[in-house]
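Researcher: Please translate sequence to structure tokens.
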Amino acid sequence: MLTSLSIQNYALIDDLHVDFNNGLSIITGETGAGKSILLGGLSLILGKRADLSNLKDTSQKCIIEAVFDVSNYNLNSLFESEDCDYENTTIIRREILPSGKSRAFVNDSPVNLNSLQIIGEQLIDIHSQHQTLQLVSNEFQFQVIDALANNEAFLEQFKSELKDYKTLQKELKELQNFQAEAIKEHDYNLFLLNELVEANLKEGELELLEEENETLSNVEDIKEKLSESYQLLNDEQIGILISLKGLKNNFQKLKDYSSKYEDLYNRVESSLIEMDDVFNEIDEMQESLEADPKRLEEVNSKLLRINNLMQKHSASEISELINIKNSLEDKVSLTENLDGTIQKKKTEIETKKGQLDTKAKQIHANRTEVIPALIEQLQSILGSLGMPNAQFKIDCDLSDSFYYNGKDELSILFSANKGGQFNELKKAASGGELSRIMLAIKSVLSKYIKLPTIIFDEIDTGVSGEISNKMGDIMLLMSKTMQVISITHLPQIAAKGHTHFKVYKEDVNEVTRTNLMKLNHDERIVEIAQMLGGIEMSSSAIAHAKELLN
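Model: Translation complete:
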């Protein structure tokens, strides 16, 4: 609900503030007084683009601020999705700077025009005789039927499951595309994997093989050096072991003379033990060391294979080759198991499709059940609005496709005359008829869902007094459950309002400006009398105005 509107420095408005109430508010005024300026300012709050031509004084900024009570509209999630702070009393402000730039704020949080439009759509619905495109919108038509069918909960569930269904379809498509590419690479990956598996690689193996290769390649030289070492240690005349034994014997005798020789004795004894151990190892090595051409060939072959694999896979260590092997195993395994994975995904999709079908059929059943009641209500209202022969034909058929709101294809046809051909709304109804149809639809909708504030902008143009009286009654009935604002030239409608505002122009210091005033009871009599009979009011016009107000 719009509770107040403030406009500064906009078009012909210097500074205007108006408070609105529940129920039906009427705005009247002479042609050209500035009613369209009010709507223009309000449109900026709803996200319309602005420019410098909107400024009354181009050296000052224009500020338009609207206050809304949104406590009954469940808009918390909408505000959150648009990254705005939610308040039950929401303030929307639009500023147009002298530079031509504009800024918008929702509860003091800066927002872009797109967010302003999304939020604004939930707050105010401005409807004029020329704004009936919504009527032929399939989305709006479904909204009307679903409101009567109480489909909101079913549609939320359907949309959630449809999202899951599309996700599963996307995953299946990705798997199938992957499979198509993987099959091309599978044979090559399998060949590479088999090469690495046959190589039977182990961590640290390369260093061991290189060491073994060095040994086997130089057996004779190693044997020669070991033999020389053996002789140096064990020669009967000059052998190191013989010399160390002699040295030990000498110091064994010396330590008996003085304790200071005991340390040297111990060190010589340790050296003898160590050299004796070295001698035994050399002896064992000589015995075990043999030329093995066959083993040398095996080692060289393994080294060659490893080096070739490293070169092929741009690896520098065996650990890298092992990682590549593991990766190839995963790819090959995944490719070989893809058929099962794809089949499992198809089964999930079929299950989800069945669930969606069930929901869609329930939504369809609810819609078809309320269509006769909707037709009856619309034809009844239009009959009272001077369209007694208006007829609707509404078909709601299940299709094979899933749409965002079910599986239905909706067709609404209209005929304004007896025996006339049914046709699409935009082809079968005139502008005035479309306006009355929209009024009838909004009237029906107001009984079932919480509609935003609706502003009827001279939708009564060109209708007779009796029909305008019925239009006023419909607006009054709608105002019991929502806020309705009607801009009108017809006294029959003006007299229905709970609150009456008059737009007028005045000249101040030879400058024309637009203003707005709330009328009291006596002022309403005068305004309605002038709407009936012109500026020179007759006694009969005044009496008629009083009669309308009463």
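Researcher: Any highlights?
Model: The longest strand covers residues 391-403.
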